[in-house]
Amino acid sequence: MKVQYFAASSLDGFIATENDSLEWLFTLGELDNSSYPSFIKNVGALVMGSATYEWILNNSEEVAAETGSSWPYTQPAWVFSSRELPLIEGANIHFVQGDITPVYAEIQSIIGDKNIWIVGGGELAGQFYDANLLDELIIQIGSVTLAQGKPLFPRRVFAPTLKLISVHQMGEGMVELHYTVDRSINS
Q1: CA 50 to chain CA centroid, nearest Å
Q2: Cis before 121? omega within 30
Q3: What pLDDT is recorded for position 28?
Q4: What is the pLDDT of residues 158-184, one digit of tens each?
Q5: Which of 12, 35, 82, 163 has the smallest number of CB atoms closer than 10 Å to its CB?
Q6: What are the contacts of 35-42 at 24+ separation with CB within 8 A?
Q7: Nearest-CA neighbor of 2 among 145, 96, 137?
């Protein structure tokens, strides 16, 4: 089992605009031309922050048009939020808050050897890194700059902690970088 942060970022390191918009992303690359199809087959659970979940809620029509469902995942999801949020009908969602470590243990006990996908945001991925639980970053970098917004990974990480294991060009507008995290260095 691995904990993987799979996300898209602008060239200057933002996953969304300051207003949580992802419009910049949709014209850049095709998911089928990335590792996503093989990646998602090994995912047993999703973890996301409230802003990511609310983006899915607020864009449910577009999500449904693209995927056939307003909740495009079959895996259970754990949503970290200190606020009460509406439940998406038919989705297996667990609302949680606080320390990620006990939530990680709960997820691990349920999914066995499948992977955990940190869908977003960057701060949540950073908390997994801080707890020495993050194994991989799979980052798709788009050929746009946003100048400000929600940071990809708001942590200082110095070499040799991240080890680049692959680079994949996704057409003319994106590249996918796959890193492993050397957890022994962060211990």
Answers
A1: 12
A2: yes
A3: 85
A4: 877 999 999 999 989 999 999 999 988
A5: 82
A6: 35/138, 35/168, 35/176, 35/178, 36/6, 39/4, 39/6, 39/117, 39/138, 40/117, 42/114, 42/115
A7: 137
pLDDT exceeds cutoff 70 at 186: no
Instruction: Give the model confidence (pLDDT) of 96-131 as tens digits.
Output: 999 999 999 999 999 999 999 999 999 999 999 999
Ordered by where they begin, the domains of the chain are 3-181 (3.40.430.10)
Written as six digits, the tokens of 99 are 């320390």
CA distances from residue 32 to 17, 35, 138 in whole angstroms, order as listed: 24, 8, 15
Burial of 161 (0-12, 13-18, 19+ CB in 10 A): middle
Crossing angle for the helix pair 100-111 and 122-130, nearest 10 degrees? 90
Give the tokens for residue 20. 């949580």
Per-residue pLDDT, 183: 86
